[in-house]
Write a structure and sequence with these properties.
homodimer; 309 residues; 18 strands
Chain lengths: 309, 309
């Protein structure tokens, strides 16, 4: 059983003067999700945001922007192209498209190069690779257009690889429940005051979307042994007040290696977690975001060979 | 310009009583090389071995065994199947097939899973993955047959990623020569007494086969910036007397990260080179080889983002 947990990510901000993206309603967003080869499972809304839980990750829709994360072998670039065609090039203020290095890139329906080529047929994009090809690396492409993020517009990602320990074992076992996973992830402490909408996949896997006023967070877990992956993303300030969330997740899930990505935010972890091997890459985008990428892994390790049956 | 330097590797030993593999002559080996989608460039022979330099790496043929390394997008599994069909299953005493994690596995003509499936349609194979999927990892599959390696039958590989410095710059420049590369790699010191047969590719890239009595060595260099790769393989004792070769290559090529693989040999490096981050994986094969895999990388690093134009 192999499932590619790592996500492709699309975030788009439209120009003022357009109708609210939320007002487009579920059929429009169903077509967007369907373009990526995913499905909407459920929705959690508050006065600011509609948070769709997907068969492969998540979609958050605000009045003037949306954020879509899709994992597996989804074709998120199709959703990007569909959206641009629908709203018109001139109404796009900001667009960013990201891909992480996959465990098995040969199983993907397209490469980042192919995705970029298609995006560039519509709009000028600048593209970067953060990290070396032989290690964790992220591709990041953005609409090459001046843009000024709002104050406190920051996003952080924590991407964990090869989780271990009791909670990892529970996540891989049969008959997990949302309640059991929430408790083990300590979500009441890590996401205080958030409304949660979660789902347990069969035979395993877990997704949760979380909203609290204008704050959002999302966690996606692909627990399979030898290819496990867990992502956390939020607009909370993980470089400051909320850095305890990162330490909490790292302590609970015990990943062998992990990345952080910060947009106008430097995700911070405790001294103990800083003590690991690290590669780091910083990048100032001309669309107003300062990006920080770090890849960390446990100290020297002896690994067990994996027998492929 | 992207070229996948990392090699697939096939080694086969035939049972005693068969005609010498060398006596099959060039047309047979041409068909073997052609099955992998490569070509023979030249040959260096001594009384023990015929060493073919290929358009994509190397082929060494002894009386009772051969070793074939092919890089790029070659289809080495085809050569394995052709050989088995030609000689007959019952005449194969030992067979090992290896693949390293590629920079861009999505560009390969087949995955390791597909290769394995085809090999297993002919003969029982045991297969292992050494190293985690999110880091350097090697796939190793062998004919599941009792086999007893001869004393002093050891093989070592040093695989270097992201080379830097003056020599790397020279290798990437125009108009390199064999003499210029031999001098910069210090081959007279590192491979004393060896006969060399080398080739400079256009616009860049270098291969050398080396023979000295029953000893062989081979080096393949893919110097391209952002995806550089250099491999060294030999049956010299790199865990003992000849460990200076590894230190020499590491000092000259200054790779950002590197792997060693040892078969009945633990490739050894100086204290300075040991001081890097390391992952290690040991494996006892039931065909008589003890395999040691290590992956090492430089200490904490700040990387530059790569702009994809």
């Amino acid at each position: 059983m192999f499932f590619e947990g790592s996500e492709k990510k699309l975030e788009v901000v439209i120009k003022t003067g357009n109708a609210s993206l939320r007002s487009r309603g579920r059929p429009f967003w169903e077509s967007m999700v369907s373009a990526a080869n995913a499905e909407i499972l459920s929705i959690l809304s508050n006065e600011h945001c509609d948070a769709y839980l997907l068969s492969e990750s998540s979609l958050f829709v605000w009045d003037d922007r949306f954020l879509m994360l899709t994992c597996g072998t989804t074709t998120l670039v199709n959703s990007a192209l569909l959206f641009i065609e629908d709203i018109g090039l001139n109404e796009v203020d900001f667009l960013i498209y990201q891909r992480k290095n996959e465990y098995h890139s040969q199983l993907q329906k397209s490469s980042i190069d192919e995705d970029l080529k298609r995006l560039r047929s519509c709009l000028p994009m600048r593209a970067y690779q953060l990290g070396y090809l032989d290690s964790h690396h992220h591709y990041l492409a953005h609409f090459n257009n001046p843009y000024e993020p709002k104050i406190a517009d920051h996003t952080s990602e924590l991407l964990m690889y090869h989780i271990e320990g009791d909670v990892a074992d529970y996540l891989r076992a049969e008959n997990q429940t949302c309640e059991g996973i929430r408790a083990r992830l300590d979500l009441e402490r890590l996401l205080p005051g958030f409304e949660l909408n979660d789902f347990v996949f069969s035979p395993c896997g877990y997704s949760v979307n979380a909203l609290r006023g204008t704050d959002y967070a999302t966690i996606h877990i692909t627990p399979e042994q030898n290819s496990s992956y867990v992502s956390f993303e939020s607009n909370l300030d993980l470089g400051g007040e909320y850095s305890f969330i990162l330490d909490g997740l790292l302590e609970i899930l015990k990943p062998h290696s992990w990345d952080t990505v910060g947009f106008n935010c430097e995700p911070r972890v405790s001294k103990a977690n800083q003590a690991h091997f690290v590669e780091r890459c910083d990048l100032m985008l001309n669309c107003g975001y300062k990006v920080q990428f770090t890849h960390r892994k446990a100290k020297n390790e002896t690994l067990l060979p994996i027998l492929s049956l």
